[in-house]
Write a structure and sequence with these properties.
Blueprint lengths: L20 E6 L4 E6 L5 E7 L4 E6 L6 E9 L2 E7 L6 E9 L2 E7 L4
Parallel strand pairs: 1-3, 2-4, 3-5, 4-6, 5-7, 6-8
Length: about 110
């Protein structure tokens, strides 16, 4: 996992990466792309600011969850959850204007 504002520092999260990914963004014009391909992947986001772009893909065989809290304007969020075996959850609380939220939950090929 690379953290953009730390430039070239690469952090190996080891066994903790599949358990939970927590993203907190405060500011403007940030971009985050997250891909999680394990069972039970949980993403929790808190985004406060304007013109942020968040894209996530969760694939695998079971129990994906995303909780997102958005505040600000012109935020773009794209969530794709692909799972053939169980139920996926997307909880989104948004206080925003001029934003776009796209959630695709499907068995294959979101």
């Amino acid at each position: 996992t690379t953290i953009p504002f730390l430039k070239d520092i690469d952090i190996n999260l080891g066994v903790f990466y599949p358990i939970m990914i927590i993203i907190v963004i405060t500011g403007t014009s940030n971009a985050v792309t997250s891909t999680c391909e394990v069972v039970g992947c949980i993403n929790a986001w808190t985004i406060s600011g304007n013109s942020n772009t968040i894209t996530t893909l969760q694939t695998g065989s079971a129990d994906h969850e995303i909780t997102a809290t958005l505040t600000g304007s012109s935020n773009t969020v794209t969530i794709d959850q692909t799972d053939t075996a169980s139920t996926n959850v997307a909880n989104i609380v948004s206080t925003t204007s001029n934003g776009t939220i796209n959630v695709d939950q499907c068995a294959s090929g979101c």
